[in-house]
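Hey, resending since the last one bounced:
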Amino acid sequence: MKDNKNAKAMDFDTTYVPKKSNPVVKVVITIILIVWTIINLFPIYFMFTFSLKSNEEIFGTNVAGLPRQWLWSNYSRAMGTGNMGLYFVNSIIVTAASIMISLIAAMMATYAITRIKWRASKLTNAFFMLGLTIPIQASIVPVYVVLSRLHWLNRYSTLIIPYSAFALSMAILICTGFMVEIPYDLDEAARIDGCGLWRTFYQIIIPLMKPAYATIGIYSFLQCWNEFMFANVFISDSAHRTLPVGIQQLSGSYTTDWGPIGAALVIATFPTLIVYVVLCKRIQESFIAGAVKG
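The structure tokens again:
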């Protein structure tokens, strides 16, 4: 009986052929994906062509078409008259500093919560997770009062510290999902080899956490780069304004030249797309790693 079952199994393995999908279904799926791609890419195309048009074309008969006259001068006007160059640099400084602070703080906090045994570790983790429930808009008044009493307005740190604080909870949550899956035997082996707490953290844990860096980086980047309310309330001088506030300042009370505003929107939006294209593989790897570990 066993020989007959084995023979049937072998016959099944050798004769099984995967079922081919219907070519009509393939064509329909391809058409749907093409249409969906066009729908998602159209806003980028529209914004780019919008930035190269005059008001007559934008509000005339050539709303969605290519510019009849490519006004690259809109970019120079946005960078010069609108002072977008300075705002762009300010956004880079604030965003880069916030990402670094939140990433380093999240790694160290997660290591202390998940790898070091102490009584209040779970309570501390719950305290950090409370930050996910607090909307950033609800904290404008108390944060403004604290910063004003400390005479800490109109500086880069005015935005860096709140941005880092509000990104910390999500960063810790992401780091925890990866760090708890690292075998604790690695820590014990490192201690046997003479590694202390800090050396174990820097030489063992940090290299194994690379997939999480891209996820934290892109999340913090989007939160800091596009944030408007803190930057508009806490910064009143033009020397420290960021791009979202600078774009809002381009709009006049009575007349508005929309071409330079479109150019400023491109300057503010395309870095986000570039960062995602550069980090998309890392982000996919982090999601796959998290799925496999789970």
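The longest helix spans residues 258-293.

Sorry for the duplicate.
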